[in-house]
Amino acid sequence: MDIHSIFETIAYNIDKEISKELLPTLPSCFRQVPFYMGLPRLGMRGQYRCSCMNLHAYDFEDHWEIHKDKNNPFTQPIEHLAEDAPNVLAAVIGAAVVGALGIGYLVSRRPKSEKKGKRDRE
Fold this sequence. Notes:
Elements: H1 3-8, E1 16-19, E2 30-33, E3 46-50, E4 55-59, E5 63-68, H2 77-84, H3 86-108, H4 112-115, H5 118-121
Antiparallel strand pairs: 1-5, 2-3, 3-4, 4-5
Helix pairs in contact: 2-3
């Protein structure tokens, strides 16, 4: 089977499971990336990206799970988060909002003596 025909059928953001019997190794355009470059999955042994086709592959013992991204996370990180990983973007924004609210609450709860400058206390 032609390798290119396998990858042509992969849709945007929808994982396609490909048996390692059919595809024992990934083509040379795939490079291993750190675990934080995608959502970890139970049983995953690693993950790879092919920038020339915007493919993201998860490595499992007996198969690959591969999907196509609309945007390359290395060259278009904001667009990638917005279109290809909106759940990650939402989590980052949510964490920032909660952190800002928490800091605001802590600052508002400080005793008045701590809010004044050093000169005011002397």
